[in-house]
Amino acid sequence: MNHDLSHAGTAHVPVLRLGDVLLITLQGDLHDGAAEQLQQDVAESIVRSRVTGVVIDISGVEIVDSFLGRVLAEIAASARLLAARTVVAGMRPAVAITLVELGLTLPGLRTALSTEAAMELLAASPDGPLREPR
Fold first, then answer.
1. Measured CA angle at 29 (ends 25, 82), to 5 deg
2. Alpha-carbon span 127 to 118, nearest angstrom
3. Which residues pair with 111 in a beta bridge?
4. pLDDT 10s digit of each residue in the chain, 134 long?
5. 86 — phi, psi (to 5°)?
C-alpha cells in the first residue's frame, strides 16, 4: 500500500488547455492508476472547459503495449461522447509498427506527426466529432 502512495505524485499526467484544445503529453510508461486518473481528468476537463479537441502527444513514448493502446482508444471514445475530437501526435515509427503488430486500430483517433500539426488538424475541421464516411 505504501508503494502505491509513493508513486501517486509521480503518476499524475498534466492536462493543459490551449484555447479550445486540451494538450496531454505522455512520457514513458503509463500505469493503471495514472491511466484511470488521466481518463477522468480529460473527461472532466472537456466538460468544464468546453473544449472541442484533445491532443495526446506520445513523442516521449518509446514502447507501446495493448494497455496503452486501449487507454488511448478509451480517451478518444470518451472525448467523442463529450463532443470533442482526439488527435494523437508524435508517434514514433516503432510505436506505429507495434500497434499494427498488436492489431490495434485505435478507432476514433486521428494522428499527426507533431503537436503543431495536430492543432492545425483540429483547427481546420471544426465540424464536430469525426465520423466514418458512409
1. 50
2. 15
3. 88
4. 333 333 344 457 889 999 999 999 998 778 888 889 999 999 999 999 999 999 999 999 888 888 888 899 999 999 999 999 999 999 999 999 998 998 987 777 899 999 999 999 999 865 544 433 33
5. -120, 135
